[in-house]
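User: Modeling request: complex.
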Amino acid sequence: DVKVTQSSRYLVKRTGEKVFLECVQDMDHENMFWYRQDPGLGLRLIYFSYDVKMKEKGDIPEGYSVSREKKERFSLILESASTNQTSMYLCASSLEGQADTQYFGPGTRLTVL
Amino acid sequence: AQSVTQLDSQVPVFEEAPVELRCNYSSSVSVYLFWYVQYPNQGLQLLLKYLSGSTLVKGINGFEAEFNKSQTSFHLRKPSVHISDTAEYFCAVSETSGSGGYNKLIFGAGTRLAVHP
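Assistant: Request completed. Predicted assembly structure:
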């Protein structure tokens, strides 16, 4: 079974802090994705990566950056957290050429005070 | 750009009753369509997908969906639901992204299915 793990289930940070959300997948997938999930808005794509050291902006990249130094790990960075970044963050991965069949982690619920 | 509309934000239903969760997408030459399910406190998992071929697609846990090109719909159905089907269901469409030609998913807002005894 594909396993996608996220470093924390719950995280509380203060406005202005730098926040790192980590995602690791164990199935050698080429593609990795970061989404945020908000009630009534569904999932919105923040960034994605199709290879190591490669990244592409999704639909809502503002206020976020990413890092992919190793194939199995994809990090989401909030350089200066703000209250409007309070949300559920979901990481996903998929095989090359199958970006539409994604495997999701359990999510990190981030609260920014 | 593609968009996905899930017409019901919440659907309450009694156990063993049939259910239909509605999904419409914006028109395109060709589309790949998906339903994902999110059980409480879990990530999403793929329920079923339509890539081509038969318009009736069967998925896990007794769910099925029908692709209707003329109505740009991909409604999800189950003839008899169980308490364990209580979850949030997301419809999604695949879209090719920008100059790189990468595929990505566009999700609907979700439908919360609540099955009552």
